[in-house]
Amino acid sequence: AFGAAGLTAAGYSIYRTRTAPRFPLMPTRQRMILNGLQSNGALTDRALTLRQLLIAGLRQSPMLGVIPDERLLAVLRRLNLPASLPVALTDLFVVAKQEKAAVVVDGSVERVSRGLRVLLRVFEPGGVRPAFELDQAVNDERQLVKLAQDAAMELRTEFAESQHSLQSSSVPLEQVTSAVPEAVDLYFRAVREYERSDTAAALAYLDQALRLDRQFALAHHQ
Question: Rounded distance, CA 35 to CA 85, Å?
Fold first, then answer.
């Protein structure tokens, strides 16, 4: 645990001084599963939004293929396992074996003073203990996009992705989404309502997001 005194305006990671990757993947594209992020009730929306942003950041990597939620939940249902996020690790390992996933990532989100902290645990499928943990934080919860961006880049570094690949294949998430935190929140609320088949609510949230940021391309597309 750590206090707010340990945070800077830009956020930080406890592994900044590392010199070697902790979980090198094969150079060919590898499949991974990202579990739902654990959180308390007050942070449920933040955790859902952060996870979607993190997936967007990880999918920029030429080394990683994040298994889509619809595929993950379909496999769980086929195996008669509970099909809702977050998933029990033992069940995730079963899915990882079925889907030939090389890595499983589990995690949680919590509030730290006025900021947010995400702890990610990286497992080899079936592993009793995580291969490594990544601890990332920002001191303002409005910096949700930055938190996801930093966490995704740290994970990609840990998987031994080269600096050239990180620089050449990465688009800042603020450009992919929006630099307006409230617009990002509204966008992902719209996505979740659409997934629940509530199109009217989804459109209302998208309209609100676009009023905040008229250049929000993803919101226009959705």
Answer: 7
CA torsion 206-33-25-13 (nearest 10°) is 60
Transcribe 24-42 into DSSP letters. Answer: PPPSS-EEEEEEEEE--GG
What radius of gyration do the chain's Cα atoms show? Answer: 17
Please state, in angstroms and rounded to a whole number, the distance separating the CA atoms of residues 150 and 11: 9
- Cα separation, 42 vs 32, in Å, equals 28
| Residue 181, H or E segment | helix 181-195
Q: What is the dihedral of CA 39, 41, 42, 44, to 10 degrees?
A: 60
Closest CA to 93 of 68, 66, 72: 72
Which residue, among 58, 43, 33, 206, has the nearest Cα to 121 in the 3D structure? 33
User: pLDDT, tens digit, for every residue of 11-60?
Assistant: 434 334 455 788 888 878 899 999 999 998 888 888 988 999 999 999 99
